[in-house]
Hints:
Largest sheet: none
Number of strands: 0
CATH superfamily of the largest domain: MFS general substrate transporter like domains
Helix content: over 70%
Amino acid sequence: MAKNDPYAALRIKQFNLFLFVRFLLVFGWSMQFIVIEWQVYSITKDPLSLGIIGLMEIIPAFSMALFAGHIVDQNEKRNLLAICTAAFSLISLGLFLLTSETIIDSWSTNAVLYSIYVLVFFGGFLRSFFGPTIFSLVALLVPKKIYHNAATWSTSTWKTASVSGALSGGFFISWIGVDKTLSLVFILVMLSLIVLFQIKKQPILNTKIDEPMKESLKAGVKFVFQNKAILGVLSLDMIAVLFGGTVAILSVFAQDVLNVGPEGFGILNASISMGSILTMLITTYIPINKNTGKKMLISVFIFGLSIIAFGLSSIFWLSILALFISGAADGISMVIRQTILQLKTPDDMRGRVSSVNSMFVGSSNELGAFESGLAAKLLGPVVAVVVGGTMTLITVVATGVFNPTLRNLDLTTEIETNEKEE
């Protein structure tokens, strides 16, 4: 086997263009989400309105996911991503106009609020197409032998853009105001669209272009549920996020448990993200292809332990360390999941498999936030987090025992085969 090259994917110009496009889009989307949350709460002063924002986005994203996967597999990926990006720019422009002084002064509060909800809803519709399109496009831009390296860089870019976009959103609100920040998002999206057209159109690898939608969707779902490695890794990630997520109630810990105020709240959030980004970058140097399944199980187990440690901690620096470790473990599991999906998914099914993935992960994020909030209300925040971490550990053990395919998964042979084919 050839020596690992951590920069293999970055030596391909088309892939670098793709990473730049993805960074701009995710950075803009994350910034926009933070700004809209701020604006809506400023208008309503009602925490429930923030929950409605999440609901408005997840309903279309979840319900349209399978259909979006079918469309992605049937069409050319570069142009489809361009259409989605152009539509995203219109949403960003609309949100900019809705937050301008002219609209704020002339429209009623409810009219502005409901219009924002409508645009967020359409954003959720686009979200169902973005994930499968981007996942499918990655595999067309790099040789099979470096799929694992490309997946690592793509996931790292997404996480870095997501974190920096969210942080920048808060700063820009303070510096230039809500409307001007949203105008900046619009500019970033338009820039990504210009760069996107520097990427060449890619071939459509699906040999069943005329396949009826019902049969196409059935084939995609059937593939996921029959592939024990893919189903196992998706299920494990979903349960871990559903029960082990603490982000939704971090503000409760910051204010009522650790008593650290808004600055401490920001540090707690940042510690998770820094752990994820750091380990994602490290995995470009240390391949995860050997004993992949065991590494996945170990990383999620460490994630569960760190969540329990955070729940039990009343010391600020110890809580930061626990969250950093949880982010690091989560970063490893994310890279492994994306690598398994890239290597195990046939070219003609990438859109549909990615859609199923988005349904697992997307729904678990939203439901996990709801579960965390409800559990914290019923059991108290400390007990809720400890129970969630414990459920994660139980899930890991159960998966390891009852899914030997995932437990014994090793991608070394598969990657070596791809290298020989190239």
